[in-house]
Fold this sequence. Notes:
Elements: H1 13-24, H2 26-41, H3 45-67, H4 76-84, H5 86-123, H6 129-145, H7 148-176, H8 190-193, H9 198-207, H10 225-255, H11 260-266, H12 271-279, H13 282-317, H14 335-354, H15 359-392, H16 399-422, H17 424-428, H18 432-459, H19 461-466
Helix pairs in contact: 1-7, 1-10, 1-13, 2-9, 2-10, 2-11, 2-13, 3-9, 3-10, 3-15, 3-16, 4-5, 4-15, 5-6, 5-13, 5-14, 5-15, 5-18, 6-13, 6-14, 7-10, 7-12, 7-13, 9-16, 12-13, 13-14, 15-16, 15-18
Amino acid sequence: MSAPTLRKGTLGTADIAFFVISAAAPLTVMAGVAPIALLLGGIGAPVGYLVAGITLAIFAVGFTTMSRHVRSAGAFYAYITRGLGKPVGIAAALIAMLGYNGMEIGVYGLLGSATADTAHALWGVDVPWLPVSLLGLLLIWYGGFRSIDFGAKLLGVLLLAETGILVLLAGGVLLDGGGDGGISFASFSPGNVFVPGMAAVLACAFAAFTGFESTVIYRREARSPERTVPRATYIAVAFLGLFYAFVVWSVIQAFGDAKVVQAAADDPGGLFFSAITTYVGPWAADLMHILIVTSVLASLLAFHNAINRYGLALAEEGVLPPALGRVHPRHRSPYVAGAAQTVLGALVVIGFAAAGADPYAQLLLWVNTPGMIGLMVLQLLAALAVFLFFRRVPHQEGALRTVVAPLVAAVLLTGAIGLVSYNVDLFTGASTGVNVLLVSLVPGVFLLGLLLARRLRRHRPEVYADFAAEPPEDSPGPSSKPVSTSVTL
């Protein structure tokens, strides 16, 4: 009897889009980060989210074009291997593990602090953050243990709830005619866009899209992946870019162009709650508090599922221990990889708690930052890989998709990584030494990956030779691989 595999043909376009958008946690990003963007860039902040969305849409053009030519389960590292060679692909795989684990594990600190804030705001109860975070680890483990369609349905409900409350806020503001001065479109005028703080706004905006590229991770479980994966990618980028810009602009209208920056300075954490209380009612503010917690849970589950599938793919490649490649016979989930990821998360969370760290300012921000930069570096490497891949293989794709889009995306992503790295103190609030260490983790892991590739080539040549190779057309996984078309360096 053959070993169980992931459940094929389960996820449609909407399901994959739910995973990607949920990972971005729109409500948490808006209520928690958008006020900082307003402080940094003024009323032109909505344009920053549009620019980030356009940049990532350009990246998606080449990325999704290449997805029609790559069937490997390895997602980004498979693409990068095809274009840039096995050493860079193996290094990219380690950066992916750093990126997705960093983005998820740090958010357990946010879960603890957000739940504590909600309990205090609604009931005046002080809740310790560590038990909440540990309970969250168990809930997310169970969500990942269950079948992928269970996770898709759950995320669909949670995502509709968190976006619904933001639509309710925007609708209340617009129906009431806004604050002082009425409805204004001054946010989009050049004088308010080309300001010194816009570079920092762009850094915040790019961070708000983190994880959008994870659509290809679900290729093996998608229905008609050649169509559903590109569609889900475009839907996620378009929705996030337009929705973020619209919501931030609506909140500006709630206070008025002349007063919103001061309101954000006076109470950044309460800006959205104040607006929804005024234009919808106190009950909506209470509901928003609760939905921020569920938004964080949805983000955790989305990243957890992505990490598990990366772990599964790397175990099947022979890079990680084979046990991580086991799939549950009933739920068809990578349950061993999920358990290992949960244990890793628990160790990091407990370690930060034992050190007396703040769950938000240190566990969330310090762990998320290298994860965020790592995923942006993956996007840059993938853009370069798209260009080089189509230079070497025969194809019928147009130059706009295979030359212009990936090169433009590479230039823009390089700028975005530079902005985030230069403004890293906005994300961490830490000392220069801590910031240097956090940013250095990404190139450090990349170098470690290159060394691992060298070791595999010398001591496990069969694993190195088959890394990220294409599976046969009828294969559910990457076993029995033919020779890869990537460059062997």
